[in-house]
Amino acid sequence: MIEIDEPAKPLTEKRLSNFERELGATLPIEYRQFLLKFNGGSPFPDTVEIKGMPESPTDVLEFFGVDAFDESSDLMWNKDTFSDRVPAQMLPIACDSGGGLFCLLLAGEDSGKVFYVDLQFVGGMKQQVAFYEVAENFHAFLEKIRE
What we know:
The model has no long low-confidence stretch (mean pLDDT 92). This protein is an alpha+beta fold. 23% of the residues lie in helices and 26% in strands.
């Protein structure tokens, strides 16, 4: 069981529904519950194994929240900021200390799965983005976080 330190300000059901409208997507129920309870924050423990990723394991530095105090901790800010490297159907929900993102897939047959997006992956002469499946759903993602 993880603990969350420094959560963002409390989130209401009304604000979360408005966020989903702004986003143009419905969030998975377990992720909605997490946002309503914590609305972001730093987990403890914080280590997660990512199958197939060379630098695995990595940490979950922080979960993003709705209307977070710091813009870099805000869900919509991260969605907008990384829109050139993260597909539109993915929502960045957390980051690691190396600059990678944990994203929730919001559309398609794999909707609800959590992926790690390695923004530092270098292939050939230019920087690329690498994607790694982390968990079948948000609950399974939380269960994978360990010391």
